[in-house]
Structure formats: C-alpha cells, structure tokens
Design a protein that fits this description.
This protein is of the alpha+beta class and about 325 residues long. About 35% of the residues lie in helices and about 20% in strands. Strands 2-1-11-10-9-8-7-6 form an eight-stranded antiparallel β-sheet, with helices on both faces.
Length: about 325
C-alpha cells in the first residue's frame, strides 16, 4: 500500500464533532480518571488529549499543557512502524526481504543478515538480548540517534537459535529499523517520516533533547494533542485500523496481537489499539506515555513525568477503559 493509499481517508478527519450529553459525561469520566491516576502515582507534570469519532475534543494539563512537547518513549515505535509500512508501499523498503539485502553493514561471524524487516517490526526476529537497556542511561542528553551503532552490533551478534518467530519485545529490533530508515532517508530518519506520514496529518515529531539518542525505538517528542492527531486516524480510520490482520502482525494469545508498533485486540466487531512507553533513569530522567484508540471511537494520548510500575500502567489503562465503557 502506498503512503497516498494509506492516508487517503484522512482529509476528512480531525474536524470538530459536537458531543451529545452522554458523550460529554464520558469525557468528564476520562478526565477524572486521568486526574485521579496522576494524583495516586505522584505525577507533577502530565497532559491528556481526548478524541472522539476522529476529532480532538478536549485536553487537560497538570504542570504542562496538552500542546507542550514531551517525551513519548516507546510510543515512538508506532511512528517508526507506520513509516516503514508507508515506505514499503512506496517501494523504498521491501518488508518481506532480509535486512541484510537492504542495509549493508560490516558483519563478522554469526550475524543477523537473514532477519526480515517484518520480523523486526513485530519483535519476532529472534533477538533476545536487549543491550540498549544497559546502554541508554549513558546516552541521556545526547540527542543524536544511535541507530547505526546499535544496528551494527545487533546484526553482528544475530538472533538466538530457535527463537525466531517468538515474540520478545526488544528495542534493538527498532534500532535496526531506524538504521534502515536512515539509509532510505539519506541521513536522519525523522524528516523523512515527518514528511511521509505526519505532515499529511498536520503534525510533526522531534527528537527529544534528553532522550533523542533512542531515536526510532524511544527518542521522540510530541505533544499529547499532536500524538493523538497521529494515532486517532491511523488506528481509527485507515486500513491499518479497519483490517490490522491484513498488515504485518503476530498473535500473542488471549485474542491480543502486536503490529505496526502497537498492541491490538478485536472487540465488538472492531479493534482496540494501545501502547505504553516508559523511560526510567533515576529521579531526574523519568518519562512515560500511553495511547489508546477504542473501536475507532474514543481515543486518548497521555504523557507524564514519572516511570510508572507495571501495576500503575495497568491501573491507568483500567481506569480509562472503565471511563469509556462502563456506564
């Protein structure tokens, strides 16, 4: 699918939609759930942008506004994956071919040249040792992406035998995709992806001054409102939203899947999409973000200045789901 085909439906989106009384009540419940959660976890800076039926309908801030850029951590992966899909449609990337045929890098001994691009997108490449988790703390305040460095080491080491096809969430997969996009772009991947997938939506991403070294796997910044304007149509109205099983995906069990940089699950004849991101480096370098698009109807984009625990992330998800679906 070309970038034009992927985003053809977007011209009519993002227009204001008046809320009925019952929808205004849902909006208030979402706001209250977010406020209660930020108080419980001690977030002093947080913002939420809320969308309904393709329109951004409201936003709220605590210590920052929904229009303020903030780190989106692993929510960067959705931008990377959608950019790869769009570049595939424009024949710049061959998603079913090996990374070694498209990204020539020095390799010695056992390597990962045979890994396919789609396997990297879906974290099923067999890469299991995520060395970025040990390295990222040393790259704080270094805004230049480290794709090439991570990709070279990753491809030299290669996948673990017998693990290809098994889902293992690993930043190195998206570091290699970042290096591939850098090659396609002839430099930094971000201007290329901004032009290809974000500019048609009227938004832009930028590299985080603090965390930009994480690039395509976790180094981007966007405001809560701008990220909502990305995920709301992509995971609410495009073919990715309408038939995600027709795009690269892997099944995780319990009805859940992973594809195009997000988790998704069928629900009442439609799909719910979501993802969390967290950057956890001591008390002075913490950030997190969350998005969800429920059945192409309600959507939220949230950012905050803490590193929540897994339980706290589940609490936020559950509180927002309750606000939307429980009457």
């Amino acid at each position: 699918m070309s970038a034009r085909g992927l985003f053809a439906v977007l011209a009519c989106l993002l227009l204001a939609t008046p809320l009925a009384a019952q929808d205004s009540a849902t909006l208030l419940r979402i706001k209250t759930a977010w406020q209660d959660w930020t108080a419980q976890v001690g977030a002093t800076k947080s913002a939420i942008s809320i969308g309904y039926q393709g329109a951004a309908v409201d936003g709220f801030g605590k210590g920052r506004s929904p229009q303020d850029p903030a780190p989106i951590a692993s929510l960067s992966k959705a931008i990377t994956a959608v950019c790869v899909v769009a570049a595939t449609g424009d024949t710049k990337i061959a998603i079913d071919q090996s990374i070694g045929s498209q990204l020539p890098l020095p390799r010695t001994g056992k390597d990962g040249a045979a890994i396919k691009v789609r396997e990297l997108m879906l974290h099923i490449s067999g890469l299991t040792n995520d060395r970025t988790q040990r390295q990222m703390a040393g790259w704080i305040d270094q805004p230049t992406p480290r794709h090439a460095e991570v990709a070279a080491k990753t491809l030299r080491t290669g996948p673990k035998p017998g693990r290809a096809g098994q889902f293992v969430y690993n930043n190195e997969n998206y570091a290699v995709l970042g290096a591939l996009l850098d090659k396609v772009a002839g430099g930094n991947f971000l201007p290329f992806c901004n032009d290809l997938i974000l500019a048609p939506l009227g938004v832009q991403a930028q590299l985080s001054p603090r965390f930009g070294a994480y690039g395509a796997w976790g180094g981007l910044e966007m405001s809560a409102e701008d990220y909502l304007r990305f995920v709301m149509p992509v995971f609410g109205e495009t073919r990715i939203a309408q038939d995600p099983l027709a795009f690269p995906h892997t099944t995780l069990g319990g009805g859940m899947h992973y594809g195009t940089g997000s988790f998704f699950r069928p629900f009442q004849g439609n799909f719910n999409f979501w993802h969390f991101g967290a950057l956890c480096f001591g008390d002075t370098a913490q950030a997190g973000a969350f998005f969800a698009v429920w059945q192409g109807d309600w959507a939220v984009s949230v950012n905050y200045d803490i590193c929540p625990t897994n339980d706290q992330m589940r609490d936020l998800d559950a509180a927002l789901v309750a606000a939307v679906f429980i009457r």
